Amino acid sequence: MAPTYLDRKSHPLRSLLAALLVSSSMVLSGGAAVAQQQADQPTLLADQIVIDDEGRLVATGHVQVFHQGTALTASEVIYDRDSDALTLSGPILIQRPDGTVISAEAGQLDQELRGGLLQGARMVLDQQLQLAANEVRQSPNGVTRLTRVAATSCQVCGTSTPLWQIRAARVTHDTESQQIWFENAVLMVRDVPIAWLPALRVPAPGVARARGFLAPGLVTSTSLGAGVRLPYFLPIGDSRDVTLTPYLAANGKALQADYRQAFSFGRLRVNTLVGRDEILPDDLRYYIDAAGDFRISPGTTMHLQLQQISDTAVMNNYGYSYADRLQTGAEVLRINNNILSTFGFWGYRSLRGSETNRSLPPYLAFGRWEQDVTLPYVGGRLTYGAEYAGLWRTDDTPGPLGRDVSRLSTFAEWSRNWTLPMGLRLRTEAASYVLAYGINDDPAYYDQAVRVQPSIATTLSWPLMRRESGGRTQYLEPIISIGWADGYGRNVPNEDSPIVELDTANMFALQRYPGQDAVESGARMGIGLRWGFVDPSGWAGGLTVGRILRQDFADSSPISSGTAERANDLLLEAELVSPAGFSLDARTLINDKLDGFGKSELRLNWYHSNYNLTAAFINLPEEPWEDRPRKITELTLGGAYRFNDTWRVSSDLRYDFAASQIMRNGFSMQWQNECVVVDLSVSRRYTSALYVEPATEFGLSVNLTGFSVGGVRRASSACGT
């Protein structure tokens, strides 16, 4: 056979065919292989390759074609130079570089393996979504059209019916836009039609940000009744997106918008809701919750926050947030080597029934500058700076309810550590504050006041360590601290230190008050002992015991903190960690007679691959100074358990023993397989916010996985196992 009618065009299979003809009319059998040398041309492997009487190249027996990342497998491939096409006989398997897998019974493709028609085909996208169709027509531009399609992400074994599927007359998959369009689509669950849609568009598997509807949610609450949420995600470029969620309920309707934007220098988030309902039928209800973090310059950041509501119950009613205080304002922070500076302004709004916004106070402004240096001759670290704080109340009532306070202070703090013979550690601290106050609308105090507050303390400790033969390490550290502090000048209101806590973090500190308006007057001595161990098996634990002895009692300090009349209260803290994921933390104050407990808390955590348990118990004695007119004894429980890869349950409970009342409880259950996630939840919350009644909420969410990113979990077992 003369090859004179062939030319050497760049078409790979034509070149391959011409090469075969120039060599001769031949039959290659027994695992013959022909490979084109050029990198952009295909490689053909087959048991047998022949040229028939019509000049077509016929490859049979385990035929494989590789071209630009695409791999094709078939029982027979026929290449016709006139049509420049491949005729395929099944079973056919096509694997593309983007993860798409296509199987078919028969078909025809162009010689680039990009366009053509496949019959009896099944296409799998990103190992998640599979589409079975009578015909699959592919275009070189990346658009695939399927007819009479059944789509599902469920595992299909033989002729079994998947848990869910979408049947459509036509489906179009565009690889460039990464979208899938369904025409005349019917959602079926176990072959039972559930919903019909004339058109449906979903993101292709593997897409991180695609425009379209997200999984809907069914919600039932005692305040709004039964309702449904239909979130719609809309990306706006590469750095912005918004999620619009219509909420339709029996007793109201609302639209929620969640906006996000990323900048090269920060990020912004805005969550809003606008709605009308039968709870307040004459009012337009809304909330705005916005926050932004920005980098103004190297070392300088700014935080912005805006929280506004139409009424105190709107966020609770719509299940957005159960916060009982709102905060709006801005804060700038700059850290440059050893210099820190910050300033800001905040406005607060309380939703608590026990608080009045006019006297909260609702407005606070602050600024602080400080520098940290090492002293060359004296040694140690010196921190000095200045601070401003001002708070304003809108109540005009003279006294604490309407008092406005401004404070300007300068300060210097010095500390140095020494290591003495035998491993003794010595630390000395000294500080001095000069504060100037401006006080308005409170006849109990002067309009102007100046105070000086010096303090000094020395702490001596002896850390000891013992290593045992099995690798276990124990440490023991006795500590003693002697300090003195006082305040000179006119009395001022205590605005920033109404609550004082005593724990191991501040037991030997120079000052236990969190602010500057109060000072621990007189001499004091703290004694304590720390013991702990670390075992190679994973066990670890520790125990701390401490007590503070005072020369004078501070009448302004709350009793329950363990720092005033009960200055001799014993502080006891313990912690324990096990290799099995169990941990315990406990703290309590025991009175000087060792027969009563003050503030106490206990926390237990147990984390495992299949479950986690948390428990917290807190006991707070009655303390009007801390706005606690009654004793609080609460237990909080939470846990989750995964029975297997399919079932998972979780619950939480908060109970107040002193009030004999459940504060919050909830339960949720999740069922999941490789193609669907079902979440069912119920919760009830009691709140002290004004005009907010206790509410029970039921939630149901069904998510058909297989679309977008992370939407599917691999089947736990293969067919037939």
Describe the structure in your own words.
The protein is mostly beta strands and 721 residues long. Among the domains are: 114 residues, lipopolysaccharide transport protein A fold (Sandwich); 200 residues, no CATH class. Helices cover 2% and strands 58% of the residues. The chain contains two helices and 44 strands. The strands form two sheets. The chain has a 26-stranded antiparallel β-barrel. Strands 1, 2, 3, 4, 5, 6, 7, 8, 9, 10, 11, 12, 13 and 14 form a 14-stranded antiparallel sheet that branches. The chain is elongated. The N terminus is likely disordered.
- In whole angstroms, the N-to-C terminal distance is 55 Å
Number of strands: 44
Q: Tally the helices.
A: 2
Main sheet: strands, sense, barrel? 26 strands, antiparallel, barrel
Q: Compute the gyration radius: what is it?
A: 37 Å
- Arithmetic mean pLDDT: 85
Please state the overall shape, judged from the principal axes of the Cα atoms: elongated
Low-confidence stretches: 1-38
Going by helix content, strand content and strand pairing, the class is: mainly beta
Helix content: under 10%
Strand percentage? over 45%
Function: Involved in the assembly of lipopolysaccharide (LPS) at the surface of the outer membrane.
Family: Belongs to the LptD family.
Organism: Ketogulonicigenium robustum
Keywords: Cell outer membrane, Membrane, Signal
